[in-house]
Amino acid sequence: MSVQMHIPGVSDLTDETKSPFPLNQWYVAALSKELTDQPVGRTLLSQAVVLFRDGDGRVHALEDRCCHRALPLSSGTLEDAGIRCGYHGMLYNGGGQCIDIPGQDIIPPRAKVKSYQVKEVDGFIWMWFGLDQDAEPLFEPPNYAVHSSGKYLYDGDVYHYEAPYQLIHDNLLDLSHLGYVHLRTIGGDAKTHMNADMRVTGEGECVRVVRHMRDSLPPPTYTAAYPFKDRIDRWQEIEFLPTHLKIWTGAVDANSEDLNDPERGGFHMRGFHGVTPETETTSHYFWTIATNPQSDPEATLQKVVEQTALTFEEDKVVIEDQYQNMLKFGHAPMISIHVDAGANRARRIIEKLRSTAG
Amino acid sequence: MSVQMHIPGVSDLTDETKSPFPLNQWYVAALSKELTDQPVGRTLLSQAVVLFRDGDGRVHALEDRCCHRALPLSSGTLEDAGIRCGYHGMLYNGGGQCIDIPGQDIIPPRAKVKSYQVKEVDGFIWMWFGLDQDAEPLFEPPNYAVHSSGKYLYDGDVYHYEAPYQLIHDNLLDLSHLGYVHLRTIGGDAKTHMNADMRVTGEGECVRVVRHMRDSLPPPTYTAAYPFKDRIDRWQEIEFLPTHLKIWTGAVDANSEDLNDPERGGFHMRGFHGVTPETETTSHYFWTIATNPQSDPEATLQKVVEQTALTFEEDKVVIEDQYQNMLKFGHAPMISIHVDAGANRARRIIEKLRSTAG
Amino acid sequence: MSVQMHIPGVSDLTDETKSPFPLNQWYVAALSKELTDQPVGRTLLSQAVVLFRDGDGRVHALEDRCCHRALPLSSGTLEDAGIRCGYHGMLYNGGGQCIDIPGQDIIPPRAKVKSYQVKEVDGFIWMWFGLDQDAEPLFEPPNYAVHSSGKYLYDGDVYHYEAPYQLIHDNLLDLSHLGYVHLRTIGGDAKTHMNADMRVTGEGECVRVVRHMRDSLPPPTYTAAYPFKDRIDRWQEIEFLPTHLKIWTGAVDANSEDLNDPERGGFHMRGFHGVTPETETTSHYFWTIATNPQSDPEATLQKVVEQTALTFEEDKVVIEDQYQNMLKFGHAPMISIHVDAGANRARRIIEKLRSTAG
């Protein structure tokens, strides 16, 4: 089976006429909670951007470069009307137009910087990257009811990866690695994970992987968060879309409920994973974890968040080591095994989106 | 207005047939106080040089490379007669000739390294960089009476910048940035700086910018150093020459004296700024600050030096950020505003000197 | 005299049709003591390798890359049967064949990684690098009786150098640098070293340098380790082979014994120096030092090892500075002096071995 993957410096299969990233997509640019009274400078899909809120709380994204002497606007300061450069004080509004040049009456019309389409939905700042950069977005950014429904407590963070985005997709679509990489938190017995019942489905740009591990021992994070009686029936439901993944995992007491029923009880962890390329070789990883604590909600949430952070730090080490080693070995072929079905399907989707964008 | 600037990796306008730096010039290579009983290794205009004093206190500059096995001579040791390599002990005199090979009687004539023209004047070590490297200097290095007159106390330091030299010229020639970058020290009200009376003149390779800010509030460094009654009349006189700048700033009580009179009283700060390219993308910044303390001279000098160092560290952050951002954005054009008149004039002088050098 | 040397980025003489390293050679890959219950990942001659012991204590070397998703096997775990990848648990035996894919019954035959020829002899792990990588080694790796004879106590370590391997050869073949670089330990009076009686001989791929320093003052390491009466007669016997050097140094009381007699008494230090290229520009340096303590053997050994480590750290600084300076100055020629005879002979041997390998 031939599976293409865009790994700069590595893949034979890279077609330079294609975009390195799927375009005509909304990508996560920030978590809502990151944008307070300071601007945030961040490179997204190889473009240096400053993100900030104006006096009304509206979020804007501009090219991160003053048009006068090229200072990053992200080292400037926020005002109600926009963002002021920290070198000679030029002020820009949310549309990128300069609206004040201190000591000078006339503002030349070309005193402006590029602005980007951003929308804030359910705790995320989404940013549109179009094939045609001047065109309007073709559709709306996604809602995320897990954050807005009130049924869950959640928190999250942003991690930076020295690795291309598709290696993070691979990692999230194949949870069989939990038994080897995440023994301390959500892992548990390795064979249980490798031998899970797995079903891979999907349509369009979506891939779904469902894995059931029945009658297994609860891992450390689970026992710490929920009063299981003994062995558990555990599920992992992964939904991949080109710019983000949602992973709904959890467990009930063994043989107590139907694992396929979305209304099942027990312990739930609902993860959101925004995977946004920083450059072709580095990535931003925006994650939140939501859970349904039975008692002492804040303490339980905090514990779940801590363990999730620990888990993702373990993944980060593995993925960055993997990329360094891929660079070292260049074009050496990879063989696929049974657990790769979902990841390989996602790679084909990304490959197709890169072509249509080219 | 088209203004050329040699920014490696950035400018469209770079003509590779030109020298990256003005030649036939004296550049500051070191402060006198740096050369004690240890040699100093330093790259100047892309040439690795060792600077040292011999037993008579005379300063010499040699190629920083033993002709035997290429060790930097700057990791060797000083003797009365010259500098001895730290690997196998070859001794070189100030002219670069090897005068001792331990254990070997005959010294081959080709056992020598290149030497440079250096002169020590008023606390600076100047080094000649000629278009023809073997020719004698065409003129003498400049005096600096501020150091030798006995009217001022002074001290200084050397900073290293990860940015090309012309960005430091820009910064020093346009002091309107004080209100945004240096609030904590010599800044003060931003609008005062942006609205200063400014006059730009010059002849030959010299640019002069004079700025007056009348009836303004004294900034923190000024009030700490001098007993102003209330508001002040403040001057800034900048003199640019291709390898260094002199900046005479100060203030008198508002409406008490003629700001154009060089004999004016009040509080004075006289800065010397030697901007010497290390490479095309990095720079040495040699500075001294002289002042005329009214009381407790040593303590006042120390305070002024500390605040000046703090100010230059703020500039360093801005200039290095600027250069990184210029590299990120490549050939994006810059627009000029009213405060850039002096800096733009200096750029044209440097551009012309690079051509005649080619 | 023209002496060739393969210094990447420096030498005019580099012939790219040659191998950068002598091939058909055994190189030291590790000290025996390094391989315990953890695998060791190491790049040797530009190849990333994992070294480990199986349950029987036998040493194996494999390509450091899981054939599934390219993780370094060296971040995996050891089992009796081999090494298990830390991502999805694939297990490899010492021959590089995958023998377990968790959760999958069939193991495809192409699920394997490259294996290397390794042999453990007298405390070293030797690895064969052939001109034809699939051919058997042409000869056996060397014994090292100094470790196995029981006459000496020894210990050692591995250092990493940011410099090409031939600069380490140079350093070890020319001990005249002791008086300038190693004053604190094995140096002593510089002139004594530079004026030593020196004889350079050799045959085939071997160079021998013998140096005698009669009636000299003992250096710090010697007086600390042995009860010399006063002045000493000191010898240094260096034997160079393409992948390693042996250096037998020591001293007897002045005029008490024949320095050319291998059965001479006094204080002995016998050094082994495995110089294995990591890449063309970086090196591994495996060293052991053996000595013959007169009293309190463990404490004396410890002192000798500490001083040797200190000495090699001094060499590391010099050699890395030298390489950086060679890169800075590019093709500038080097002149040779009397002490270079042995090093120049070794360079010609390496040059010849690189050609026959091409």
UniProtKB/TrEMBL annotation, chains A, B, C:
Pfam families: Rieske, VanA_C
Keyword Iron-sulfur set for record: yes
Annotated InterPro entries: Cholesterol_7-desaturase, Rieske_2Fe-2S, Rieske_2Fe-2S_sf, VanA_C_cat
Organism: Pseudomaricurvus hydrocarbonicus
Molecular function GO terms recorded: 2 iron, 2 sulfur cluster binding; dioxygenase activity; metal ion binding
The Rieske domain, residue ranges: 26-127
Protein name in the entry: Aromatic ring-hydroxylating dioxygenase subunit alpha
Keywords: 2Fe-2S, Dioxygenase, Iron, Iron-sulfur, Metal-binding, Oxidoreductase
SUPFAM superfamilies named among the record's database cross-references: Bet v1-like, ISP domain
Residue stretches in coiled coil: none
Keyword ATP-binding among UniProt keywords: no
